[in-house]
Structure prediction request, 342 residues.
Amino acid sequence: MEDTALAVVAQPRELSVIEVKNQVTKIQGLMTDLMKEGTHFGKSFPGDTKKNLLKPGADKLCFMFRLRPDFVQEIKTLSNDHMEVLTRCSIYHIESGQKIAEGVGLATTMESKYRWRNAAKKCPACGQETIIKGKAEYGGGWICYGKKGGCGAKFLDGDAEIENQPVGKIENPDIADTYNTVIKMSKKRAYVDATITSCAASDIFTQDLEDLEPEKLPNKEADEKTVPEPEPEKNSKIDPLILKRTELKEKIISIMIARDPDEFDYFSNEEKQSVKNILQRTGRHEAGMAIVEGLVSKWGEELEKRKAAYKPVPFDDDPLPAMYSEPEGEEAAEDRLNAEIF
Prediction:
C-alpha cells in the first residue's frame, strides 16, 4: 500500500423521519398490546403525560429492540454500617455488539425508607409491639393488649424493660437487612435509565416515581393554580332558614357521633339511622326547624345521661360493649360524620 493511501471511513447512516416515526409507533404498539399499567409501567407525576417505566417494561423494550444490558457496580462503605451503591448500565445491540447508551443509578441505605423505622414498645414476653398503658382505675402499669394480638402479660409502672424502649422514628437497627435491596435498587435505576435513553423514549417514559413517598410527589395542578378562589360577596343574601338548619344539623351530628373515653359510640347505629331518617323528612321551613330543634334537645339530654353513666372498660379480655367499633383517626371522623348521619 502506498504511503499516500487514505483510510475510507463510512459515514454513519442517519434515520429518516419515517424510520423515527416507525420506532415510536413500535413502542406505542408494545405498550398497547403487551404492556400493562401497574406491571410494566405506572402512573407518573400529576398532570404529566409520561408513564413511569418499571423494570418489566424495560425488559420488554430491550427484548423488542434486541438490546442487552451490562452492569458495573461500585459499593462505598459509609459510617454506622451504611453503604452507597452506584451502578453503571451499558446497553449493547445484540446483533452488532455496538454500544447504544449508558445509564447510572444510585441507591443508599441512607434513604429514609431504609434508614428509619417507626418503633413501638415491644412486649418482653411475646415480642409483639402491642404494649399499651394501663388505666389508673385498674392499677396502671403496662399491658400487652390481647385484642391487638398481644399475649395479655402485665407489667408494673417503672419496669425498665418497657419504659426504656425507644419509640417513634429511630435508626433501623437491622440496616444490613437492606443491603441486597439497595444493591438491586441501584441496578434497576441504572437499567431503566439506560433503556429509556437507548430507545429514545424519554418523551414517553420517566422513572423512579415508585421510589417517592406520596406526600413528596409534586402536584403540577396545584403549582399552576395561582388564581385564588373568588370569595363570596359580603352583601349576598342567604336564606336565614338555611343558616339555621345548617347550625342545627352540625349540632345534632356532633351529638350522635360522640364517643366515650374508651372510643366506643354513645349511640347505636339504629339510633343514628332514626335521626337521619327524621332529618331527611324535614324541610327548610319553620315546622321543620322546630322538629330538628327537638332532636337536638332530646339527644343532647340523652348524651349527658350516658356520659354520667359511663364506666371505663378494663384492658383485658372482658366482652366489649354492644356498640363497640374500632377507634378511628381524625381523618375518618369527617367521613363518618356524613356517612352515618347524612
User: Anything to note?
Assistant: The chain has a mean pLDDT of 77. The first strand starts at residue 41 and ends at 42. The first helix runs from residue 17 to 33. Residues 17-114+176-215 form one domain.
